[in-house]
Amino acid sequence: MNKSNAKCYLKNGQDEGGSLLELMAVVLIIAIIAVMTIPLLHEQMASREIDLIARRFITHAQFARAQALTLGTPVHIAPLNGNLWDEGWVVKSPCQDRQLKPICGERYWFSQGDIRPVYFKGGGKQFIDPYTSRRGILFNAAGAAKTAQGGFVANRLILGHDRDPALERQLILGSGGRWRICDPRKDARACR
Question: Global pTM?
Answer without folding.
Answer: 0.77
